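Final report, results section. Input specification for complex C-07:
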Amino acid sequence: MEALNSFLTRFGRIMGGLVGTMFQSGREAVDQVWKNILPFLAFVAVIVGIMNGTGLGTWIATLLAPLAGSIWGLLALSLIIGLPVLSPLLGPGAVIAQIIGTLLGTLFANKTLPLSAALPALFAINPQVGCDFIPVGLALGEAEPETVEVGVPAVLFSRMITGPIAVILAFLASLGM
Amino acid sequence: MDWLVQLAQGFIGIFQAGAEWWWAVFVGIVPLVVVLMTAFNAVIAWIGHERIENFGKFASQEGLIYLPFRYLLLPVVSVFVLTNPMAYTMGRFLPEKYKPAFYDAAVSFVHPPLGILPHVNPGELFVWAGIATGVATGYGDTAVTDLAVRYLLVGLVVILIRGIVTERLTAMMWKKASA
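Structure output:
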């Protein structure tokens, strides 16, 4: 009887812990959606509305379509976005990447762009990822000021090389899609 | 009077177009993201931070053999468990000369998993979801899953390359700066 009791107590405690963790995880998830995803969605919805409602979006999309439709165009896009003078400006909140991505999305929705362009496009719109955040990111890793001084240009120049490489890899990886 | 009505219609039409888009995305994406995020938040809570720190110390060692640990496994585990932006704190276990390369690899991994692991960076979901919702409409859900898996896998290769290239560039610039 005692063994059964202690078993039940332990079992109950474990189950309580599991449920508690799951519930807390759910709370965090909903919080994140509420605080981060929905506001951004609202902001993009206004932009999308203006673009779709006025026809401006179609116009920009037709400009982007030839660029996103070929591997050379995507490489050019990644080179431009990855320029060390531009990348820190285009980085914050990944807003630019998210808006270009959404615009390109409309071109995939109406099949103007082939499916095989999607993967290289994901990398072509994003060679600047984190370029605005290098000193902060390094500080979070407890880097010395000298490391930051060397690290910022090192990462920025690295992107000029690795940005286009990523697009080429993605292009190869989307063969057969 | 007619032209006033038309003007009003055009004006409200802009916002109706926005609302339609908002609703489609909200219904199409948010429920799945909430469920996935809940599951992964729980997994992270069960793993615990102590185990992650021990792994950080192990993966941060010098030498060529540890290269895939420094710029592949460590960034992946950091981003999965600590998410953006706390993942970069794992750089503290590395020698100074490797910190920029680790940051580059880690920050480059905050988007490629978004199709499967949205909890790593929910605030920037649309780097992935912008293109993915379009692909879903045009080419169907199977194509999106295919794309999500390939995005993740290519992301792994890209962060390793970024780590190696940035490590080399850091070493070159360090020499120049101290000369």
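Chain B touches chain A through 81 residues (CB under 8 Å). The mean pLDDT of chain B is 88. This concludes the modelling results for the funded period.
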